[in-house]
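Posting this for the archive.
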Amino acid sequence: MFIPFNVYGMLPFNCRFEITMIHSPRSLSSVKSNYTRENDSPPFCRINGNSALAHKMKKEANSSIDKPNDQKSTEELIELGLLLRKIQEINHYIGQVFCLSIIGEKPEIQKILVDFFVWKFLKDKNAFWDIVWILRYRGNYEVLTAASRLCESKNPKSRELGVDILGQLGVPERSFPDESGIILLKLLENEENIDVLYSIGVAIGHLKDPRGVAPLAKLKNHLSADVRFGVVIGLLCQEDELAINTLIEMSTDEDEDVRNWATFGLGEMIETDTPIIRHALFQRLIDEKGETDTEAEIRGEALLGLAKRKDKRVINLLIEELCCNCVGRLSVEAAKEIGDTRLYPFLSTLQEWWDVDRNLLQEAIYSCQSE
């Protein structure tokens, strides 16, 4: 969402954070566990100042829920998906006016209004992804053909929808992965839209298609952090030398989300163990000195990656982490991986208060106790 900085900066921090999260294209990807999806009904919307458009969209939305989504045709679902994308785009502009309108309110009122706006936006967003997932689950040739046509559209929102479908077509078994990869790589050759480029990176990552390594690596220095984030996702799990070198370079990116996922990719998503990978991971422990949650997670990912490679340099650093007032899950997981008896007393002390994952803590203690 494009909010003037002087307006955005006047909102309370918690409100700024919520609004940033719901408008970031990375918000649905930035979960390292499996994606989750909440089923929801397509929303209704009212657009002040354009009653004709509002009436048209409400009519289309009403007609779209005459039958359950899973009973709609592929064409109906795509039309509904594009409609919901249109609603999301309108919400972005509404958000600018919304932020301006609440500046004079008391902080507690601002929080209530932001909570409502976030709920409304996520309702629309979930409805869109419900459509995408139904099309993915169908995974038949009709959906492949429809997604392919979308990728040839002059409308970037249509291309983005097509890419989103192809990335996980036929889940969980996946159907037409080779054909989907060919379509995505062809689109990547000339694509310039930031949102579409981001989605292509994520889709190639889901397909784990090694053909995407070289073209994605060319975008490692793209001006958009979202595109660079998509590049990182596209390179996860690839043991190719170019992919690894690109992730190493991107682990120093100015954007902390890009650094976070590049470090995750190097530390956990590949088995390759080389001095240059270890050096890149250890460098994160030196450079990530900030106190944000993301920077702490980057340090945790680096610790875990080195622990998996049995690098003893992490022992003293792990002791420091385990003695903190706030101990992250990744640090305990790293202790479990390296299994060094010097960590045992510090892990045992955590039993008094650390309740993030009791089973993991017991596994780490067992791994580090003397035989």
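The chain is about 65% helix and 0% strand. The CA atoms of residues 118 and 215 lie 36 Å apart.
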